[in-house]
Write a structure and sequence with these properties.
The structure holds two protein chains of two kinds.
Chain A: H1 17-27, H2 29-39, H3 42-64, H4 69-73, H5 77-88, H6 95-110, H7 123-134, H8 136-140, E1 142-143, H9 151-158, E2 168-169, H10 172-179, H11 183-188, H12 201-217, H13 224-243, H14 251-255, H15 260-267, H16 278-298, H17 305-322
Antiparallel strand pairs in A: 1-2
Helix pairs in contact in A: 1-5, 1-12, 2-12, 3-5, 3-6, 5-6, 5-7, 6-7, 7-17, 12-15, 13-15, 13-16, 16-17
Chain B: H1 7-11, E1 42-43, E2 50-53, E3 63-64, E4 71-72, E5 77-80, E6 89-90, E7 95-104, E8 112-120, H2 135-138, H3 140-149, H4 162-165, E9 176-180, H5 190-213, E10 217-223, H6 227-236, E11 242-247, H7 256-264, E12 279-283, H8 284-295, E13 302-308, E14 316-321, H9 326-332, E15 340-345, E16 352-353, E17 367-372, H10 390-394, H11 401-409, H12 413-418, H13 429-433, H14 440-499, H15 504-537, H16 542-568, H17 576-610, H18 614-643, H19 652-658, H20 679-716, H21 721-760, H22 764-788, H23 794-824
Parallel strand pairs in B: 1-14, 9-10, 9-12, 10-11, 13-17
Antiparallel strand pairs in B: 2-8, 3-5, 4-7, 5-6, 7-8, 13-14, 15-16, 15-17
Helix pairs in contact in B: 5-6, 5-8, 11-14, 14-17, 14-21, 15-16, 15-18, 16-17, 17-18, 18-20, 18-21, 20-21, 21-23, 22-23
The structure holds iron/sulfur cluster (2 copies).
Chain lengths: ~350, ~850
């Protein structure tokens, strides 16, 4: 008999990284459905196409780096990156936009850094920001809520055969930015007609919240990041709204518009590029939320999840530096990465 | 750590349920306990051979007291404890010793160990047993010795000898005695069955432990998944002060540190043992073994071992003779060899896979898992860490396993340590949950091993550095003082020369002083002799030595008196200030000599008190005295030189003094010319250096040996506190002595360096620097030449070449200057 010789422990919880990643993908489905419902088939096409591009890029690069392709594809991480980026892109995005974004995310932001686990930045957000900077017009157009194009139109948009601006309109965030401070004008527009944060977007965000709660329940993610993220966004909004309701949108508006829920539950929670310890992750996400509010309120871009996440990715080592947990038998937590 | 009180406890303050605490993290692996805990403990196999490793316990291996061919009876001692942390080994049954040699044992490295091989005769005949009905009549000392001779060691974890663990000394107050009945690893049910069936014996054992440790509270920690065992213990403890604390099932609540935290809320400070926070932990099985050893007079011969896994037909608990080969045990339990895929000794979380089923069951073998490949499959390949943090969520030590993994993988041991790698208890919870199947614990074991080797070296280096720095500071201080003195002397000499007075009286006085010094040095020689004799005859020569010391004192007194005389007869008032300052210096020297004498007396006294090897110490003192005498001599020579250029042997000294007393005057070319060096003095210094070096080496060696002895004794923990304290005092003394010798040595070297400064106008460091600079300039030039050889024209190359030549010459000169200076001053090798 040949006995297995292995280090302890000899048993495991029988989870694997691929399964974890698959759960994340499943949890995005309600959000994807809401996007399709509100804005047409565009998002679905984006996501499918993005996944395809991501898998091809990943496979090519794994082969180029001399790694076993099938083994690494099984971790599903490329799929997650692709799905998240596909969800974040406007439903009007033509195929080449997605191609560039996903290709860059997989090749440069992930594989060139050494593959899964080695990337300091969230690959999906790197791809997103690259597109936002390179193609600002295409990236900031959204379909007006409740004005979903027909499937054929979505397909035409995807193939780049229909002018996007024929279908687009201002998002609630855009509108608020344009009319902020003018209470009357704001009141006159129906962007706030929804229960929470304007039509369309609140449904999408609610759907993502649902998916996020699923991840929490399955213990795929821990509460620190989403809670801190949302608190960081809602608290300053609440205070500012109290001060001047006409200039500053309320917390609910912020929480349920744009990419807030997608960011809080799916993007900021990317463990590879987040801070490490529980406290560290809390601080990390709190600052992301805060930054989003600042950029949304005072910055030049309508939404800010990508920028805020990348900035905090950059600061994650610094946060780790100060947030080591206090180990058993020690009076104080160690600070810093070095003795 | 916050007390986690139930609502009931909060509402009913008097409720007799102490608060339970919690520890962070933890996992809930599938238990698999019902596989083996359904049937009562059954007798183990009767194998053809028993293989008994001498190191079944933690600590020093036992020393065999039988030889091949001996017939032994059941319970007869085969090997005696060797050293303080050790336990005896006994024959589990009657039979013949057939071999004594290396056999494979369960060890992660797969190494063999020395074993006694016993062939049972099948009669199972007992040696004489001496049961002790009332342990309190025996007294703690004898009880501890009994446990040691009965080979009782921890049956739960590492196999630490119980006699050591219960022998804390009077100053150690035990607040809690914790009996670990948690058995938190999946599969294992040995303690569970033991408690169900032998709760009364366990409680008796606990009472013996209580008697030895006198704890304030005695707590049994047990997981709530063993209701039958809890009931049995409750019944057995009904009218004792032992408290049963049921803790929720969570791995690793049976870890010593975690259990302490669970039951008391205390955390054992990093790097210390539980006793230091007033807690002693013992396994239930150990309590049972203690009872058997004391009340039944039966040494530890067997243990209850769980045999489980889906490759055995009759899983359950067996009372197995120690030394039984695992293969026999498996056969006994009906193993299906074709199904067997993984063989684990210990639990599935922390156990080790067995590479060879012939290894024996030892005192710590609580479980054998014979699993099929489906039950405990080959681990899937390791994937990249996705930093998901699952590991950190479950780590009971509150570490960041993902960071530790990263640092261990990249050999960044410094950061691994900074992230408290050494506090990892290797529980495996992190690896259990890791979705990327990273064998984290293996990485930690590797890194810990590396760090242990490194820190052993680091400690050495640190000590050396500290000593060096302290010495450096002292030397600087001393140097400054000496410098001041020297300057005062120079000043005095100058004045004296100006006065240009008669020197007759002074000469006479100096001669007298010289004589005194000679006497002092002969006294020294006598002391050396005495020390030698003491060494030869050992012991009671101390009195003699003391007498010698007394005579030394007389010498010193005489020297002092002579000096006083000299001062009294000091002539010409013009010379008086100079004279007196020089005399002051000498006086100081004499003072030093007398203090050295005092130290010698003290040493002699100690020798009287402690007898033995203090003779060597006295001898070192004598060496010191010699150094003092020499110093005195040197001072004298200086003083004589100061009397005027007429004094022949001191020629070089005035020459430096004459050169305007400005050693910092820059000399552009290294001065090799100054050969007017006192060769005689250099030779003497060289000799002295050598002597001091030997003295220091000896002293240092003694110190190190004594230190090691103390450490050994401390580890062994046998000696009384007084004895330890005395040893410590001795180490301190030896250290002081070594330091003293070294300082004298350093002072001499410094002196030599100072003289170099005086002779060459540069100090040694400058000389060295000059040499180094010249070398590097030379190198640079050569490099430049090399680089430009192809690109530059002939002219440039020519210039470069000549520059190079000049530099070469310069470098040679500086090198030579350095060498001469060093040699002149008797420093020889640096
Ligand atoms: S559980 Fe495994 S994959 Fe997750 S952070 Fe820890 S080591 Fe990395
Ligand atoms: S093995 Fe070490 S790092 Fe892993 S969970 Fe246990 S204590 Fe923590």
């Amino acid at each position: 008999m040949s006995l297995i010789n292995a280090p302890s422990p000899h048993t495991s919880r029988h989870t694997d990284t691929g399964a974890v990643m698959r759960q994340v993908v499943y949890a995005t489905l309600p959000g994807l459905a809401a996007l399709v419902w509100q804005f047409g088939l565009g998002s679905l096409l984006n996501v499918l196409w993005a996944v395809l591009v991501a898998l091809v890029c990943e496979a090519l690069f794994l082969r180029a780096r001399g790694k076993p392709v099938a083994f690494y594809l099984k971790d599903w991480s490329a799929v997650v990156t692709a799905v998240l980026l596909g969800l974040a892109l406007p439903p009007t995005a033509p195929w080449w936009l997605t191609l560039i974004g996903v290709g860059f995310a997989i090749v440069v932001a992930k594989q060139l850094y050494g593959g899964l686990g080695m990337n300091p930045f969230n690959p999906a957000m790197i791809g997103y920001v690259l597109l936002l900077i390179s193609f600002p017009v295409a990236m900031t157009q959204w379909i007006a809520p409740g004005d979903a194009p027909a499937p054929a139109d979505s397909l035409a948009l995807f193939l780049g055969q229909a002018p996007a601006d024929a279908f687009t309109g201002a998002t609630p965030l855009d509108t608020f930015r344009t009319w902020a401070g003018d209470a009357e004008a704001l009141a006159g527009r129906d962007i706030l007609a929804g229960e929470l944060a304007g039509p369309g977007w609140e449904a999408v965000n609610l759907a993502f919240l649902l998916g996020g709660l699923y991840l929490l329940a399955r213990r795929i993610i821990t509460w620190q990041i989403p809670v801190a993220f949302l608190a960081g966004l809602a608290l300053p909004a609440l205070i500012a709204h109290q001060v001047d309701a006409a200039r500053f949108a309320g917390p609910l508006f912020h929480l349920f518009s744009g990419g807030a829920m997608l960011g809080a539950f799916f993007i900021a929670t990317d463990p590879v590029s987040a801070a490490t310890s529980r406290l560290g992750r809390f601080i990390y996400a709190l600052l992301i939320g805060l930054l989003i509010w600042v950029i949304r309120t005072f910055g030049g871009y309508p939404d800010a999840v990508a920028f805020a996440v990348l900035l905090l990715n950059l600061s994650a080592p610094f946060i780790d530096y100060y947030t080591q947990p206090r180990a058993y038998g020690h009076r104080k937590a160690n600070k810093g990465a070095n003795p | 750590m916050r007390a986690n009180l139930t609502l009931f406890q909060r509402l009913v303050p008097g409720a007799r349920r102490a608060p339970t605490y919690d520890f962070p993290g933890g996992v809930h692996p599938a238990e698999h306990k019902s596989v083996s805990n359904q049937t009562p403990i059954a007798p183990g196999p009767r194998p053809a051979q028993l293989v008994l490793p001498l190191n079944m316990h933690l600590g020093a291996p036992a020393r065999p007291i039988v030889t091949v061919g001996d017939r032994v009876l059941k319970g007869q001692m085969l090997a005696e404890p060797a050293g303080a942390v050790s336990a005896a080994l006994h024959a589990p049954t009657s039979g013949t010793v057939v071999a004594l040699g290396p056999r494979p044992i369960q060890h992660p490295s797969g190494m063999d160990a020395l074993c006694i091989v016993l062939e049972p005769d099948g009669e199972d005949r007992w040696a004489e047993r001496r049961p002790v009905a009332d342990h309190t009549r025996l007294g703690p000392g004898k009880l501890i010795a009994l446990l040691r001779d009965a080979g009782v060691a921890g049956l739960g974890g590492a196999g630490f000898p119980t006699s050591v663990k219960v022998n804390l000394g009077d100053h150690q107050r035990v607040e809690q005695l914790i009996i670990n009945a948690v058995e938190c690893e999946p599969y294992i049910t040995a303690d569970d069955r033991l408690m169900r069936e032998r709760a009364d014996e366990i409680v008796l054992g606990i009472q013996i432990l209580q008697y030895l440790l006198n704890p304030h509270d005695t707590l049994i920690g047990i997981e709530d998944n063993k209701p039958d065992a809890i009931a049995a213990l409750r019944a057995a403890c009904a009218d004792s002060d032992v408290e049963i604390r049921v803790v929720p099932t969570k791995y690793p609540s049976g870890g010593e540190k975690q259990l302490i935290q669970l039951l008391t809320g205390k955390e054992v400070p990093s790097g210390s043992i539980p006793a230091q926070c007033g807690v002693v932990c013992q396994n239930v099985g150990t309590a049972w073994a203690v009872k058997r050893a004391v009340h039944d007079g039966e040494p530890l011969l067997s243990r209850v071992t769980t045999v489980t896994g889906d490759a055995v037909a009759r899983p359950g608990n067996y009372e197995v003779w120690l030394g039984t080969p695992v293969a026999d045990l498996l056969r006994h339990a009906g193993v299906d060899k074709d199904r067997l895929g993984r063989l684990v000794m210990g639990g599935p979380m922390m156990g080790f896979t067995l590479h060879d089923p012939s290894v024996p069951v030892v005192k710590t073998s609580n479980c054998i898992i014979a699993a099929s490949a489906e039950e405990l499959p080959e681990p899937p390949p390791e994937q990249a860490c996705i930093r998901c943090g699952a590991c950190a969520e479950v780590c009971p030590a509150n570490l960041l396993p993902q960071q530790l993994y990263w640092y261990a993988k990249t050999d960044d041991f410094e950061r691994a340590q900074h992230h408290n790698l050494m506090d990892c208890i290797e529980c495996g919870a992190c690896a259990y949950v890791c979705p990327s199947h990273i064998p984290l614990v293996q990485y930690y074991r590797y890194a810990k091993g590396e760090i242990r080797t490194q820190t052993a070296e680091q400690i050495k280096a640190d000590r050396a550095r500290e000593r060096f720095e302290a010495r450096q500071a002292r030397l600087e201080r001393e140097q400054a003082e000496k410098e001041a003195r020297r300057r005062a002397r120079l000043e005095a000499n100058r004045k004296k020369q100006e006065a240009a007075t008669e020197s007759g009286a002074g000469d006479e006085k100096l001669a007298a002083l010289k004589k005194e010094v000679g006497q002092a040095s002969s006294a020294y020689k006598a002391a050396v002799k005495a020390a030698k004799t003491a060494e030869a005859q050992e012991a009671d020569n101390a009195a003699e030595l003391r007498a010698r010391a007394d005579s030394l004192k007389a010498e010193a007194d005489r020297a002092k008196a002579a000096l006083r005389d000299a001062k009294a007869t000091a002539p010409a008032p013009a010379a008086a200030p100079a004279e007196s300052s020089a005399l002051a210096d000498l006086k100081k020297a004499v003072g030093e000599a007398s203090s050295a004498y005092k130290a010698a007396v003290k040493a002699a006294k100690h020798a009287e008190a402690e007898e033995t090897d203090d003779a060597a110490e006295l001898r070192a003192r004598a060496d010191q005295l010699k150094a003092e005498a020499d110093r005195l001599k040197a001072e004298l020579r200086d003083a004589k030189a100061a009397q005027g250029p007429a004094a022949p042997p001191a020629a070089p000294a005035p020459s430096t003094q004459d050169s305007g007393t400005s050693p910092e005057k820059p000399a552009d070319t290294p001065s090799v010319a100054n050969t007017a060096v006192d060769e005689q003095a250099a030779g003497k210094r060289q000799k002295r250096l050598k002597g001091l070096k030997t003295a220091y080496n000896m002293a240092h060696k003694q110190y190190k040996e004594a230190h090691a002895a103390v450490e050994r004794a401390e580890r062994a923990g046998q000696d009384s506190d007084e004895a330890l304290a005395a040893m410590h005092a001795k180490v301190e003394k030896l250290k002081a002595k070594a330091d003293h010798c070294r300082d004298a040595l350093d002072a001499l070297v410094e002196q030599a360096k100072a003289d170099i400064l005086a002779h060459t106008g540069k100090d040694l460091k400058t000389l060295k620097l000059d040499a180094a600079r010249a070398e590097s300039a030379l190198r640079d030039k050569a490099d430049e030449l090399e680089r430009r050889r192809d690109t530059s024209d002939a002219d440039t190359l020519e210039t470069l070449n000549s520059e190079l030549d000049a530099l070469q010459e310069h470098a040679q000169l500086t090198r030579l200057a350095l060498k001469t200076a060093v040699e002149e001053q008797g420093l020889v090798e640096e």
